[in-house]
Amino acid sequence: MNFEMVMQDLEALGKERTKKIYVSNGAHEPLFGVATGAMKPIAKKIKKNQPLAEQLFTTGNYDAMYFAGVIADPKAMTEADFMRWIDAAYFYMLSDYVVAVTLAETDIAQEVADKWIASGEELRMSAGWSCYCWLLGSRPDGEFSESKLANMLEIVQNTIHDSPERAKYAMNNFLYTVGVSYLPLHDKAVETAKAVGPVEVKRDKTKSKFLLASENIQKAVDKMQLGFKRKYVRC
């Protein structure tokens, strides 16, 4: 399938209701409103195709950009490629669920994510912390430095309340993911989550929301989900 065929198929799959949901989360035109599950048959035909993924990602069309992440070949992407992608990711569903997810399947994931976390820019920070969540939730514990992750927990404890809104979500999720998926630091993550307490995130036009990682970690413990690892990062 070529670029034009993919765009035609995506447009045909678009639904107004789905489009409204995406827009309410921060997407803007151009977009079709394609449910992610509806993309799977097209993805099966294409499998991985990095040149096509690049064409789709540069359209600025949300659905095409999302689908680019589905068919991307992460191992063919360089740090410069990921920097281009994060530059174009204009809201969290792209930064955290397309760019960060794709980065998590590479050997340079931690190196690039560290730079994004240190950037001070909201969506870069969000993508960086989210990338670690995808990594910790899918890779063996032995692939990580315990001391580095312990230091990252301290950074979360000391800075989360003053961080940008989307970064707060990702940092809170990092606390949860370390507590559930990285067994060497389960106790420290629980301790840190309790010290952090409720995290207030402000949302447009609606009341603030409060995130509580300690409660969610305990729910996972109750469900005997400690040590959970997913088989695949991307669907």
Automatic annotation (TrEMBL):
CDD domains noted in UniProt: AlkD_like
Origin superkingdom: Bacteria
Pfam families associated with the record: DNA_alkylation
Matching InterPro entries: ARM-type_fold, DNA_alkylation
SUPFAM superfamilies reported in the protein's UniProt record: ARM repeat (SSF48371)
Protein name in UniProt: DNA alkylation repair protein
